[in-house]
Specification:
The protein is mainly beta. Helix content is about 10%, strand content about 45%. The protein has two helices and 16 strands. The strands form three sheets. Strands 1, 2, 3, 4, 5, 7 and 10 form a seven-stranded antiparallel beta sheet that branches. A six-stranded antiparallel beta sheet has the order 8-9-6-13-16-11. A three-stranded antiparallel beta sheet has the order 12-15-14. It starts with a strand and ends in a 14-residue tail after the last strand.
Protein backbone atom coordinates (compact mmCIF):
# COMPACT_ATOMS: atom_id res chain seq x y z
CA UNK A 1 0.00 0.00 0.00
CA UNK A 2 1.17 3.52 -0.75
CA UNK A 3 1.54 6.34 1.73
CA UNK A 4 1.55 10.00 0.71
CA UNK A 5 3.72 12.76 2.15
CA UNK A 6 4.56 16.34 1.23
CA UNK A 7 8.03 17.27 -0.03
CA UNK A 8 9.07 20.95 0.11
CA UNK A 9 5.42 22.13 0.13
CA UNK A 10 4.84 21.79 -3.63
CA UNK A 11 5.46 18.09 -4.30
CA UNK A 12 3.56 14.98 -3.24
CA UNK A 13 5.59 11.82 -2.70
CA UNK A 14 3.87 8.43 -2.90
CA UNK A 15 6.01 5.66 -1.46
CA UNK A 16 5.18 1.97 -1.20
CA UNK A 17 3.72 -0.66 -3.50
CA UNK A 18 0.33 -1.53 -4.95
CA UNK A 19 -1.69 1.14 -6.70
CA UNK A 20 -3.28 4.58 -6.25
CA UNK A 21 -5.07 7.15 -8.41
CA UNK A 22 -3.70 10.48 -9.57
CA UNK A 23 -4.72 13.39 -11.74
CA UNK A 24 -3.73 12.96 -15.38
CA UNK A 25 -0.26 14.46 -15.93
CA UNK A 26 0.59 14.80 -12.22
CA UNK A 27 3.82 12.76 -12.37
CA UNK A 28 7.09 14.72 -12.39
CA UNK A 29 9.53 11.90 -11.49
CA UNK A 30 9.75 8.43 -9.98
CA UNK A 31 12.23 5.85 -8.70
CA UNK A 32 11.30 2.20 -9.02
CA UNK A 33 8.96 0.33 -11.33
CA UNK A 34 5.64 2.00 -12.21
CA UNK A 35 2.95 1.74 -14.84
CA UNK A 36 0.30 4.43 -15.32
CA UNK A 37 -2.87 3.84 -17.31
CA UNK A 38 -5.91 5.98 -17.82
CA UNK A 39 -8.78 4.94 -15.57
CA UNK A 40 -11.39 4.77 -18.35
CA UNK A 41 -14.20 3.63 -16.06
CA UNK A 42 -12.96 5.52 -13.03
CA UNK A 43 -11.55 4.21 -9.73
CA UNK A 44 -14.64 2.08 -9.02
CA UNK A 45 -13.69 -0.48 -11.66
CA UNK A 46 -13.02 -3.15 -9.05
CA UNK A 47 -16.70 -3.05 -8.00
CA UNK A 48 -18.01 -4.36 -11.30
CA UNK A 49 -18.17 -3.15 -14.89
CA UNK A 50 -21.88 -2.25 -14.85
CA UNK A 51 -21.56 -0.11 -11.73
CA UNK A 52 -18.41 1.50 -13.10
CA UNK A 53 -20.17 2.42 -16.36
CA UNK A 54 -23.06 3.94 -14.40
CA UNK A 55 -20.65 5.93 -12.22
CA UNK A 56 -18.84 7.16 -15.32
CA UNK A 57 -22.14 8.29 -16.87
CA UNK A 58 -23.04 10.19 -13.69
CA UNK A 59 -19.63 11.93 -13.58
CA UNK A 60 -19.86 12.94 -17.24
CA UNK A 61 -23.42 14.24 -16.82
CA UNK A 62 -22.51 16.30 -13.75
CA UNK A 63 -19.25 17.68 -15.16
CA UNK A 64 -17.17 16.01 -12.41
CA UNK A 65 -15.42 13.53 -14.69
CA UNK A 66 -11.81 14.17 -13.61
CA UNK A 67 -9.16 12.67 -15.93
CA UNK A 68 -7.60 10.02 -13.66
CA UNK A 69 -4.63 7.70 -13.93
CA UNK A 70 -4.29 4.38 -12.11
CA UNK A 71 -0.66 4.17 -11.03
CA UNK A 72 0.58 0.66 -10.27
CA UNK A 73 4.01 -0.44 -9.09
CA UNK A 74 6.53 -0.01 -6.30
CA UNK A 75 9.03 2.63 -5.33
CA UNK A 76 8.82 6.41 -4.92
CA UNK A 77 6.52 8.47 -7.16
CA UNK A 78 6.61 12.29 -7.28
CA UNK A 79 3.58 14.41 -8.24
CA UNK A 80 2.94 18.14 -8.58
CA UNK A 81 0.61 20.63 -10.25
CA UNK A 82 2.11 23.94 -11.44
CA UNK A 83 4.03 24.38 -8.16
CA UNK A 84 0.80 24.68 -6.16
CA UNK A 85 0.85 23.99 -2.43
CA UNK A 86 0.27 20.32 -1.58
CA UNK A 87 -1.68 19.03 1.44
CA UNK A 88 -2.24 15.43 2.58
CA UNK A 89 -5.60 14.70 4.22
CA UNK A 90 -6.01 11.45 6.15
CA UNK A 91 -9.61 10.25 6.44
CA UNK A 92 -11.08 8.14 9.19
CA UNK A 93 -12.94 4.95 8.13
CA UNK A 94 -16.25 5.86 6.43
CA UNK A 95 -15.45 9.60 6.65
CA UNK A 96 -16.19 11.63 3.51
CA UNK A 97 -14.71 14.81 2.12
CA UNK A 98 -15.95 17.03 -0.72
CA UNK A 99 -13.22 18.46 -2.95
CA UNK A 100 -13.33 20.91 -5.84
CA UNK A 101 -12.33 18.72 -8.80
CA UNK A 102 -9.65 21.14 -10.01
CA UNK A 103 -7.90 20.85 -6.62
CA UNK A 104 -7.86 17.06 -6.39
CA UNK A 105 -4.39 15.67 -7.14
CA UNK A 106 -4.42 12.05 -5.94
CA UNK A 107 -5.92 9.53 -3.52
CA UNK A 108 -5.12 6.08 -2.17
CA UNK A 109 -6.79 2.85 -3.24
CA UNK A 110 -9.03 2.73 -0.15
CA UNK A 111 -10.98 5.83 -1.16
CA UNK A 112 -14.32 5.55 -2.92
CA UNK A 113 -14.65 8.31 -5.50
CA UNK A 114 -17.99 9.73 -6.64
CA UNK A 115 -20.02 12.90 -7.06
CA UNK A 116 -22.24 14.72 -4.58
CA UNK A 117 -25.17 17.04 -5.17
CA UNK A 118 -24.67 20.41 -3.45
CA UNK A 119 -27.51 22.37 -5.02
CA UNK A 120 -27.76 26.15 -4.87
CA UNK A 121 -24.39 26.47 -3.14
CA UNK A 122 -22.63 25.25 -6.26
CA UNK A 123 -24.66 27.55 -8.49
CA UNK A 124 -23.70 30.56 -6.37
CA UNK A 125 -20.00 29.82 -6.76
CA UNK A 126 -20.45 28.97 -10.46
CA UNK A 127 -19.05 25.49 -9.82
CA UNK A 128 -22.25 23.66 -10.77
CA UNK A 129 -24.72 21.56 -8.84
CA UNK A 130 -22.23 18.82 -7.99
CA UNK A 131 -18.79 18.36 -6.46
CA UNK A 132 -16.36 15.45 -6.11
CA UNK A 133 -16.67 13.28 -3.01
CA UNK A 134 -14.20 10.78 -1.57
CA UNK A 135 -15.14 8.34 1.18
CA UNK A 136 -12.66 6.24 3.19
CA UNK A 137 -13.22 2.51 2.84
CA UNK A 138 -10.10 1.52 4.81
CA UNK A 139 -7.87 2.60 7.69
CA UNK A 140 -5.21 4.38 5.61
CA UNK A 141 -7.27 6.48 3.22
CA UNK A 142 -5.47 9.63 2.09
CA UNK A 143 -6.52 12.43 -0.25
CA UNK A 144 -4.11 14.93 -1.80
CA UNK A 145 -5.29 18.45 -2.58
CA UNK A 146 -3.65 21.51 -4.11
CA UNK A 147 -4.14 25.14 -3.15
CA UNK A 148 -3.01 28.44 -4.61
CA UNK A 149 -0.80 29.41 -1.67
CA UNK A 150 -0.68 27.99 1.85
CA UNK A 151 -4.07 26.53 2.86
CA UNK A 152 -6.21 28.01 5.59
CA UNK A 153 -7.65 25.23 7.76
CA UNK A 154 -10.79 26.12 9.69
CA UNK A 155 -12.99 24.26 12.13
CA UNK A 156 -16.71 24.72 11.61
CA UNK A 157 -18.95 26.51 12.27
CA UNK A 158 -17.47 29.16 9.99
CA UNK A 159 -18.21 31.28 6.92
CA UNK A 160 -16.03 31.35 3.82
CA UNK A 161 -15.90 32.87 0.35
CA UNK A 162 -17.28 30.31 -2.15
CA UNK A 163 -14.57 31.32 -4.64
CA UNK A 164 -11.85 30.37 -2.15
CA UNK A 165 -13.21 27.11 -0.71
CA UNK A 166 -11.28 23.94 -1.60
CA UNK A 167 -12.81 21.11 0.43
CA UNK A 168 -14.85 20.27 3.51
CA UNK A 169 -16.04 17.42 5.70
CA UNK A 170 -19.54 17.07 7.13
CA UNK A 171 -22.74 18.59 5.76
CA UNK A 172 -22.76 20.86 2.74
CA UNK A 173 -22.83 24.62 3.30
CA UNK A 174 -25.80 26.93 3.08
CA UNK A 175 -25.76 30.36 1.45
CA UNK A 176 -25.68 33.45 3.65
CA UNK A 177 -26.43 36.67 1.81
CA UNK A 178 -25.93 40.29 2.75
CA UNK A 179 -28.24 42.06 0.35
CA UNK A 180 -29.67 45.47 1.20
CA UNK A 181 -30.26 48.77 -0.51
CA UNK A 182 -26.54 49.53 -0.02
CA UNK A 183 -25.67 46.54 -2.19
CA UNK A 184 -27.31 48.09 -5.21
CA UNK A 185 -25.60 51.47 -4.89
CA UNK A 186 -22.14 50.02 -4.37
CA UNK A 187 -21.78 50.83 -0.66
CA UNK A 188 -21.04 47.33 0.64
CA UNK A 189 -17.75 45.55 1.20
CA UNK A 190 -18.20 43.56 -2.02
CA UNK A 191 -18.79 40.30 -0.12
CA UNK A 192 -22.52 39.97 -0.82
CA UNK A 193 -22.77 36.25 -0.08
CA UNK A 194 -20.74 33.48 1.54
CA UNK A 195 -20.84 29.80 2.38
CA UNK A 196 -21.99 29.03 5.92
CA UNK A 197 -20.80 25.74 7.43
CA UNK A 198 -22.81 24.87 10.55
CA UNK A 199 -21.77 21.30 11.41
CA UNK A 200 -19.67 21.47 14.60
CA UNK A 201 -16.09 20.15 14.67
CA UNK A 202 -15.83 19.57 10.92
CA UNK A 203 -12.95 20.80 8.74
CA UNK A 204 -13.13 23.42 5.98
CA UNK A 205 -10.06 24.26 3.88
CA UNK A 206 -9.81 27.44 1.81
CA UNK A 207 -7.01 28.97 -0.22
CA UNK A 208 -5.73 32.56 0.13
CA UNK A 209 -6.82 33.34 -3.42
CA UNK A 210 -10.22 33.72 -5.05
CA UNK A 211 -11.14 32.05 -8.30
CA UNK A 212 -12.22 34.44 -11.06
CA UNK A 213 -15.88 33.48 -10.70
CA UNK A 214 -18.91 33.93 -8.50
CA UNK A 215 -22.01 36.11 -8.45
CA UNK A 216 -21.47 39.85 -8.12
CA UNK A 217 -24.57 41.60 -6.85
CA UNK A 218 -23.17 45.08 -6.35
CA UNK A 219 -23.56 47.70 -9.06
CA UNK A 220 -20.72 50.19 -9.63
Amino acid sequence: MFEFRVHQEVTCVAEGDGYFFSKLGAMVAYKGDFKAEKALLGPSGEQGVLKSVMNLAVRKFTGENIPLMKVTGSGVYYMADLAKHISVITLQPKQSICVESENLLAFTEDCKYGVRFIGIGGVASQKGLFTSELTATGKKAQVIITTDGNPIILESPCMVDPDAVICWTGRDPSIKTDVSWKTFIGQTSGESYCFEFNSPDEIVIVQPAERPSGIKLSID
